[in-house]
Design brief:
Largest sheet: 7 strands, mixed
CATH superfamily of the largest domain: Type I PLP-dependent aspartate aminotransferase-like (Major domain)
CATH architecture of the largest domain: 3-Layer(aba) Sandwich
Shape: globular
Number of helices: 13
Bound molecules: ligand C6P
Structural class: alpha/beta
Number of strands: 15
Order of helices and strands: EHHEHEHEHEHEHEEHEEHHEEHEEHEH
Distance between the termini: 39 Å
Radius of gyration: 22 Å
CATH class of the largest domain: Alpha Beta
Helix content: 25-40%
Length: 390
């Protein structure tokens, strides 16, 4: 794994990978190359450039499908995880009295759209509790998922706790009552080998920018037979079959869900990012990050006054912690002076912070290009923070 592929990492210790990951030269070059050599609109013209751009865009779709073991037609390009969930909240059939089951460790993106739809339709949102050991209460999950449940939407890996949730088990519970099961895979697809056929989820959503790709492009995976039943999310060019002044008909999935000019350069970048990750191998990435996380946890646990906010096992390389008497914003600011980038605050999970009884945490989140030296830099940075507040 070559840190030199990442120009921005030359002089910094970047540990904010859950927010967004850095981009290798191959991805930056693919975006530049698209604008230099292939720039055109897709699915419209029949000129040479339009064909080249369309081929590139569809190659990105094939790569995204391959990456999660889906069929090509099951991949819809969106702006990212947030847009994918908003799409589902707007389009899944939810009626008065229906129940939507989430968990207490969801990101705002997997809470707010459901709250809104529940408000509009008279549905009820319920939350699977997080236990004291930072894992989901599966007994409570069994109680909460009932015949009234229409949608269960759960984060695969928490962006705050690092907890990897038993999504396959929850999926079985959802399907047993006929509910639709959605996986928020924003933090898992970039780090864990993902196989939607094995998970058997109905929908799975993720963002390109958290896996070395550009911002502004993400994926909504859906089982084809389910996508076919959904109404389009947006209307306009590119998604129609026929239009008259009176009425219009739609194309097939996936283009039915991609109204307007899509993010073609983003798709070119995402394609390069997927090829980059495939070249390293997701198994290799998973194993390497596990080793790095184990090392980081061991080192951090020795620091007096530092409390890890997350489970011991079944977790990813996302480490939240509090430092006694020091606000997470101060921790991040002082670490930044030491050229170490982490995130401090509520991590777009305000309800979880309230539940945990903290105003925020400091979060160090790792990717495959991070090293043990980065962990060591973090540990000595934290000593400096503690010196400042001593
Ligand atoms: N979490 C973080 O620093 P978007 O912004 O649409 O690409 O992803 C939203 C999102 C949804 N679910 C989870 C689990 C996430 O972690 C995120 C993004 C970033 O933790 C930015 S707030």
């Amino acid at each position: 794994m070559n840190k030199d592929d990442f120009p921005i990492l030359k002089d910094i210790t970047y540990l904010d990978n859950s927010a967004t990951t850095q981009k290798p030269r191959q991805v930056i070059a693919a975006i530049a190359d698209f604008y230099e050599a292939s720039n055109s609109n897709v699915h419209r013209g029949v000129n040479r450039l339009a064909e080249k751009a369309t081929m590139l865009y569809e190659k990105a779709r094939e790569a995204a499908a391959r990456f999660i073991n889906a069929e090509t037609a099951e991949i819809i390009f969106t702006k990212g995880t947030t847009e994918s969930i908003n799409f589902l909240a707007a389009r899944l059939p939810i009626e008065k009295g229906d129940e939507i089951v989430l968990s207490e460790m969801e990101h705002h993106s997997n809470i707010v759209p459901w709250q809104q739809v529940a408000k509009e339709k008279g549905a009820v949102v319920k939350y699977i509790p997080v236990k004291e050991n930072f894992i989901l209460d599966m007994d409570k999950a069994r109680e909460l998922i009932t015949e009234k449940t229409k949608v269960v939407s759960i984060v695969h890996m928490s962006n705050v706790l690092g907890t990897i949730n038993p999504v396959k088990d929850i999926c079985r519970m959802a399907h047993a009552v006929g509910a639709v099961f959605i996986v928020d895979a924003a933090q898992s697809v970039p780090h864990l080998k993902t196989d939607i056929k094995d998970l058997d989820c109905d929908y799975l959503v993720f963002s390109g920018h958290k896996m070395c790709g550009p911002t502004g492009i993400g994926v909504l995976y859906g089982k084809k037979e389910l996508l076919e039943k959904l109404e389009p999310y947006q209307y306009g060019g590119g998604m129609i079959d026929e239009v008259s002044y009176e009425r219009s008909t739609w194309t097939e999935v996936p283009s039915k869900f991609e109204a307007g000019t899509p993010n073609i350069a983003g798709a070119a970048g995402l394609l390069a990012a997927i090829e980059y990750l495939e070249e390293i191998g997701m198994d290799t990435i998973q194993e390497y990050e596990h080793g790095l996380m184990t090392y980081a946890l061991q080192k951090l646990e020795t620091i007096k006054g530092l409390k890890i906010i997350g489970p011991q096992d079944n977790r990813g390389a996302v480490i939240s912690f509090t430092l006694e008497g020091i606000h997470p914003h101060d921790v991040s600011e002082i670490l930044d002076r030491e050229n170490i980038m982490v995130r401090g605050g509520h991590h777009c999970a305000m309800p979880l912070m309230k539940k945990l009884g903290v105003s925020g945490t400091t979060r160090a989140s790792f990717y495959f290009y991070n090293t043990k030296e980065d962990v060591d830099a973090l540990v000595s940075g934290i000593s400096k923070v503690q010196e400042v507040f001593a």
